[in-house]
Amino acid sequence: AQSVTQLDSQVPVFEEAPVELRCNYSSSVSVYLFWYVQYPNQGLQLLLKYLSGSTLVKGINGFEAEFNKSQTSFHLRKPSVHISDTAEYFCAVRDSSYKLIFGSGTRLLVRP
Amino acid sequence: NAGVTQTPKFQVLKTGQSMTLQCAQDMNHEYMSWYRQDPGMGLRLIHYSVGAGITDQGEVPNGYNVSRSTTEDFPLRLLSAAPSQTSVYFCASSYRTGNYGYTFGSGTRLTVV
């Protein structure tokens, strides 16, 4: 069965600094990978997804992620964060039976 | 276009009570699913359905029942609520093929006392 590991439960960072949120998935023949963001007391919003093609995926709000098949990773990056990026971020993988499997989440805390 | 609608938004139950969380989508999505979200555990899959009349268990199905009589609706039933079922519940839907975009509802916050 597919699984997702988010290595950091919390990432503190200063405003305007770069950030990387790490995600590793269990190996599979083909994978569809997603990053979602959840702002406090809200639902989940899709940031970006990898289905095929270019390994560098650009999403909303200036985020991007790189699919690395050899390392089974899909790390999320942003070159300069804002206070408004404070939220919880979830990495997810879709398995062969259409299920979306989530990691445990990473809380991004942006400090002024 | 309402997307995925969940009701109620908040609910308090007493231990042993039963209730149904409603989920409806108007996008003709074949796939629908229920998750529960608990601190530090991400979203865990309870039940899912790949089409009307077809349901299957996810990671944490115990204490929950589902049915899928129509494409649009996928209710989640708690048969006898327990404090361990205190959580935030999300419903999600998507097409089975295509761009695999999952749409989430806004959630139901359930407290069992």
Structural class of chain B: mainly beta
**How many E strands of chain B?**
11
- Strand proportion of chain A, as a percent range, falls in over 45%
Q: How many helical stretches of chain B? A: 0
Q: Could you state the oligomeric state of the chains shown? A: heterodimer
Major pleated sheet of chain B: 7 strands, mixed
Care to describe what's here?
The complex is a heterodimer of chains A (112) and B (113). Chain A has 112 residues and is mainly beta. In chain A, 0% of the residues lie in helices and 50% in strands. In chain A, the strands form three sheets. In chain A, strands 2, 5, 6, 10, 11 and 12 form a six-stranded mixed sheet that branches. In chain A, strand 5 and strand 6 form a beta hairpin. The model of chain A has no long low-confidence stretch (mean pLDDT 92). Chain B is mainly β. Chain B is built from no helices and eleven strands. In chain B, strands 2, 4, 5, 6, 9, 10 and 11 form a seven-stranded mixed sheet that branches. Chain B has a four-stranded antiparallel sheet with strand order 1-3-8-7, with no helix packed on it. In chain B, strand 4 and strand 5 form a beta hairpin. At the A-B interface, strand 11 of A face strand 4, strand 5 and strand 9 of B.
